[in-house]
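User: Batch of two.

Assistant: Item 1 of 2:
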Amino acid sequence: MKIWYQSASAYRYEPVWDDYGRTLESQCRRILHPDTGLYVTGIAEMIRDIENWRCFQYFQNVQTLNAMRQAEREGYDAFVVGCTLDVGVAEGRSLVDIPIIGISENAYHLAMTLGRMFAVVTSSSAFCEVYGEQAARYGVASRMLTGPYIVEASEEEIATSLGNPGPLLEHFVAQCERAVRDGASVIVPGPAFLATLAHRAGLTQVMGAPVLDTISAAVKSAEMMSSLYKIGITPSRRIGAYARPTPEHLNTSLARLANQFRID
């Protein structure tokens, strides 16, 4: 079995992300079976602070969908969308025939098995909007404390702080404590850079509330879903869920769309 982990960073494309990418790899590998293969990569064109602009999110979706197609062609058994915007997750489940795990969707459902109410501790007000919309879409809004619980920092600042996590970690823990006092029994770090920060610092709980390692949880779910696929437990293919076109229709349609897909 081998798993493709798609980061929202520019790991493998911009050197500033090298430390973050290597940390991601070790963070993922520690939870997987020894014989499970893993490939971690970022995206070629990373738009900073993309959570602020829906217009750019569309094009990040396309980069991720292309990566899913590549992963399937190269024989990967599962694909993890490591961007907490869950870019391309629904489309990917209709596009390819391997498990697609969205890091946020997976984290929310896991949080509900570990406690009553969960809170997302994040890095910007724009992310708060995104996660609130996700909670409604995934049917978990009644179990989410909306806060907001914000550690003001850019994604790049978080990623480059891994060598000296102290100052940023203090702010993160303070927001976690505030969420717990408000009633949260589980903390979900988002974006994924914050989950890596907590992992690097060995932070697994605050005031008795678990701090989810959303990255490790996502790759473990991917490993599990790959096994479930093998016994016939797969996404619904009904129209309105994740209906998948025939290979001929898919390839013909994508070829036609490729001729039109450009930015004028």
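Item 2 of 2:
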Amino acid sequence: VLSMLPLYAEEMDYKLKKGSDALLTQLDKYNIGEIIDVNRKNTCKKRFGLF
């Protein structure tokens, strides 16, 4: 089964660097599912400019 999930640029960079399994784990940490939420938070955005 395939599904489409819109990604932020930082999430795509994360996927390219660490792989799709790592990105899916990251999305699971934030309870991001297959239902599109246009207001969802970026799971890979740097917080406070420190990370």
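Helices lie at 9-18, 20-29.
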